[in-house]
Design a protein that fits this description.
This protein is α/β, with parallel strands linked by helices. The chain is built from twelve helices and six strands. β2 and β3 form a beta hairpin.
């Protein structure tokens, strides 16, 4: 089967369509009496994924493009403001939909995960800082990997060695990576509870005896490079090639899915735009796995 944008959109729509019916509490709230939306929730999710894959950071340009190109996939398209409102209200639905393709791939059972965080800039000028609705969440921080200061958030991502996103958290720029990682199993108890003996590969920032002890209690084995002054740690010969996986995934988010050009101005707006891109990458890997493609994380067949 040859992968293409239409087949991916159709597969995602079919998979998503029954979720609000099976779990109506996940669908955005609507009054019982009123006008039924002409664009279904499944179509909204599919439309948002196609926007991310085709590289449209402007919702106005995307709706204008969709009105003439993939229009055969969407009988009705809202205006830009209507699309924006619907999208912001659908964050919980998109997060839940993301779990469907993740657990439907053979990669879900991988027993090795990689973890890292990457900055998400949310403005540079002083005026933006003073006026932004993100004040209190977005912070000034430093990214050692890029040797730069930035104002914004951090995306903490856990993924498989094929780049399949397993879990994530979005925090302020100064949030401790270790604390955030420990919070992820608390939010998703079934993530590690049903798979003891998981191996997690991180960088030198994931250190500390108490931190590793808490991971061990969750039956997670941590592999990381030795810090200065520490004895050589087990598995150190594996770090360089395997650590490159998470760097490559972050590059996919930023270089191909325009993560840092999210254009979000409110907490809800930033959150849904990050979720939109995570679902886009998840859907691509899921579809490539279905069609038995050699490169799981390749977007080439879907980005045009």
């Amino acid at each position: 089967m040859t992968p293409d944008p239409d087949s991916l959109a159709t597969a995602l729509h079919v998979t998503t369509d029954d979720l609000p019916k099976e779990a109506p509490h996940l669908a955005p709230w609507r009054p019982e009496v009123g006008i039924k939306p002409q664009l279904s929730d499944a179509e909204l999710v599919t439309l948002s994924v196609m926007q991310a894959l085709l590289g449209f950071t402007s919702e106005r340009r995307w709706i204008r493009f969709a009105d003439s190109h993939p229009r055969h996939l969407f009988p009705y398209l809202p205006g830009q403001s209507g699309y924006n409102r619907r999208l912001r209200k659908a964050a919980d639905l998109i997060a839940r939909v993301n779990r469907l393709p993740v657990t439907s791939t053979g990669l879900w059972t991988d027993n090795v995960w990689v973890v890292d965080s990457t900055p998400i800039e949310c403005g540079r000028s002083r005026e933006t800082v003073k006026r932004s609705d993100l004040a209190g969440w977005a912070e000034y921080g430093y990214c050692a990997g890029h040797s730069r200061f930035f104002r914004g958030l951090r995306l903490h991502l856990v993924c498989t060695l094929h780049g399949l996103p397993v879990a994530f958290a979005l925090t302020g720029a100064k949030a401790d990576e270790r604390t955030t990682l420990l919070d992820i199993p608390d939010a998703e108890a079934d993530l590690v509870g049903t798979r003891p003996g998981q191996t997690l590969i991180g960088d030198k920032n994931y250190f500390g005896a108490s931190f590793e002890r808490e991971l061990a209690e969750l039956e997670i084995r941590l592999l990381r490079p030795a810090r200065k002054g520490e004895a050589q740690r087990a598995g150190s010969q594996l770090f360089k090639p395997l650590r490159q996986v998470i760097e490559s995934v972050n590059d996919t988010f930023k270089g191909k899915l325009d993560l840092e050009r999210h254009d979000g101005r409110t907490p809800g707006g930033v959150m849904v735009r990050v979720l939109q891109r995570i679902l886009a990458l998840t859907t691509v890997i899921w579809r490539n796995d279905q069609t038995r493609q050699p490169a799981m994380r390749s977007l080439t067949a879907y980005d045009h």
